Amino acid sequence: MEMASSPRTVEEIFKDYCSRRAGVVRALTYDVDELYGLCDPDKENLCLYGHSNESWEVTLPAEEVPPELPEPALGINFARDGMNRRDWLSLVAVHTDSWLISVAFYLGARLNRNERKRLFSMINDLPTVFEEVTERKPIKDKLSVDSGSKSRASTKRSSDGHIKSIPKLAHEGYEDEEDEHSETLCGSCGGNYNADEFWIACDICERWFHGKCVKITTAKAENIEQYKCPSCSMKRGRQ
Question: Which of 36, 57, 85, 155 is the most buried (most CB within 10 A)?
Fold first, then answer.
């Protein structure tokens, strides 16, 4: 697999991940009959590749050792006729998820700790290939759902479109909520959730951000009908 230039920033790696993911998702859903036909068990070890131009390919693995990029699961064609079709597709999807992650973090070898956190957070906000193939809906973290269980300083809109801040809850389950929220990362700096800081959620991608990272204060948030993070704002601008 050849690449003209390897992506190096978090945004470039995430774009590469999304493109490869789009290719394999199409192979395992819309183009599934073509994929099934190409994975002939009588052929040699075959791999499913997703390319950075959103295309997909079933072919032999790279000959060079070690390869330029991590390789997908080898020999997916051998199990095709020995399994139920849906189970086989699910198995290929699981292996493909692992491959996509390995490529992303191979390209991100020189990222620092916070950048790696941010990259994983961006990837984790997307459904996995397995979830796409099996049509399972990912279970959202409680922080990304507008409910009464948010910790203080988290911000989201109510059904009437107004922003509301939820105060710290004084109930027995608060410590459990705090532990769960502590795993939430800022979509900008990759920093951990802190209940003492002001956070705001993007209404488009539903990622959470430190207010200071996106230059939004509590007062300013009160006057925003629909908040779009810098990344989503740029995407809208290009469209």
Answer: 155
